[in-house]
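Forwarding these from the shared drive since the link keeps breaking.
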Amino acid sequence: MSGTAQIGVTGLAVMGRNLARNFARNGLTVAVHNRTPAKTRTLVQEFGDEGTFVAAESPEEFVAALERPRRLMIMVKAGEATDAVIEEFAPLLEEGDVIIDGGNAHFADTRRREKQLRERGIHFVGVGVSGGEEGALHGPSIMPGGSAESYASLGPLLEKIAAEAPDGTPCVSHVGPDGAGHFVKMVHNGIEYADMQLIAEAYHLLRDVAGYSPAQIAETFRAWNTGRLDSYLIEITAEVLAHTDAATGKPFVDIVTDQAEQKGTGRWTVQIALDLGVPVSGIAEAVFARSLSGHAELREASRNLPGPTAQPLAAEEAARFAERVEQALYASKIVSYTQGFHQIQAGSEAYDWGVDAGAVAALWRAGCIIRAAFLDRIRAAYDAQPELPSLLSDKQFAEEIGAAQDDWREVVATAARQGVPTPGFAAALAYYDALRAERLPAALTQGQRDFFGAHTYRRTDREGSFHTLWGGDRSEVTG
């Protein structure tokens, strides 16, 4: 078998199969391989007319089918399975060949793998792929990390299959070295968790406080999707809320168990944010909200705790309240992206990646789950000021969130009075207020730490580190 395939895909579950088809549809010759050969044969039988596939039943055949430098994409379960496939194929490769991991790998694993393979002369590229199975087939957002040399070889192929932004630009570019691509994909998913939680809270408020039916809320979301909240998640939310269950005739949302699941990337985002010392409270609340929803026995045991029951508003008041919810949702969404980009910038600095925040915003304009119209404005903000400390430092975003804040505060207060949980809205507002506060109570916290643990503190009136000798003459301070 001669090396004619420009890229190979091993692991032909839904994502791997669809990416292979996407490559083939875009004029590339694609070698395909799976641990179970039947899946390879089935792909070629069902989709062989979409392009040129080279089916390989053994690792040796698969590698032999690839032109040099070989580009081999792994689409298997993250973790041990990925390591096992790497160890199976790496001995068959030569210096300058490229292994690509397109799974949802932890960026620390990607950094380890890149270093190990670099020592063997093989390039390793960790690629974040967002858009689900439809995106994989029709055009995902792609976030590759690795060496510049590996991207020079791989980039033109990825550009052929990536989603196109409204201006025609492929939603793919070199994010940075080693684990940068998977790190950015991780934060993308963290923002996705926060965005979904905020939308769910908006639905909850419109249902219980405004008294709207799911069909009415679907229409509200459709209207929002024509304005500044224009996004994929708002679009599909309207579709879900408008859907009627065929078996019962009830709104679909009413027959689904209210226990949300998660695959782990949101949790990773929060864990790494803690390691970096970056506050991502909105993302954290979204992760915890999913976790709490799954504790059915705890919720059942707590259902009779005292507290208010939401009382639906009159029609005119409900319409005005819905407008306030839109303001709160938009303001909280800005905060979620602010926190996510802060984490990307902190990770880039910690690992010396040189990630371009504006370029990341550009990658997310199409193909991915959090694609939204206002990402063009986020890109423009970072392009104008690459060292922008926060999205809230951008004049336009600051003005918009300032204009929204009265309604935002009213929504959070109403939710508290009515007993409707809105951890995302409330956390976003608290973050905003903490940023703009002249002084925070952390001064008291430092005093407490010094009292019980002699942890020292800094003063506002002179340089140095100080400790008060608590208990006797408390005025004595040592530097």
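-- next protein --
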Amino acid sequence: MEENPEEKWTYYGALVKTAKYCFLPYLVMQILGYLKEKRYRDCLPGKVVLITGASSGLGEELAHTFYKAGCKLILCARRKEELERVRTDLLATCSQETVFPPIVFPLNVADLNGMQEKVEKILEIYGFVDILINNAGLSVRGSVMECVDDVYIKLMMVNFFGTYKLTRCLLPSMIARKEGRIVCIGSVQGKFALPNRSAYSASKHALQAFCDSLRAEVADDGIKVTLVSPGYIQTNLSRNALTGTGKVYGKLDETTAKGASAKDVAAFVLKAVLRDQKDVVTAGLAPRLAIWLRSWLPDIYFEIMRRRATKERKSL
């Protein structure tokens, strides 16, 4: 059958028109985002930024990223010696720039009972915190049947309750000033769940809901809430993960090794803050597709996860 030239060009014309209508709003949003980022970058120097989990991995890179932007850092984690190492690296890296010496403040986010006292001491440093980055986190490798109760409790304490408590204790000072930003480092697994990650996904699902509620509640108080959901990152998260029995996993997963660099994710977090973004994902095509499938074609997503679970079970 001979192709009709008019129909062909009508078809291509429709495609071009559709692409134009889709691309133009995207382009406008990107331009507005860039202008907002450029405007607020000049306001960042001197801002007090508290980072949890700052002793390694993404937290360490966040420290470098925000320090180079001229922020006053309060570095928090359990391991004081590692925090001191990060502080020394920051001072050496930025020695030629106008900076504020980072403050090392040992903090265990799972110590809920002692959090209020810790926050009061934190507020004595500068009098306030402009940006709280809840980055401390823990992962797990184990099925629902393999994981003991303590593993679930520990994951929820570190990934969710610690974030909730620290945020809750700092909020009154932010509300009093009518300004502040809460940044939570979630995960794409807070938007969809993988087999053998139930405790981790559950804690990140909880964080997602917490941020959505908090964002609405404090908007009239001038406080912003940003949730960043990364995919796999090249850190020691998998090595430090727990097994179902609570032991340290101690292995670098292939997916983690091939993940995004912590430096790139830290830069993405900074951009999200400057652009006042509320809920953003930084991940490859597969996690984004999984999020889309979970929302729009859940039966297909469930079948894919079932097959994945079966494959992982056979490989053990």
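The longest helix spans residues 5-41. Residues 68 and 94 are 7 Å apart (CA to CA).

- D.
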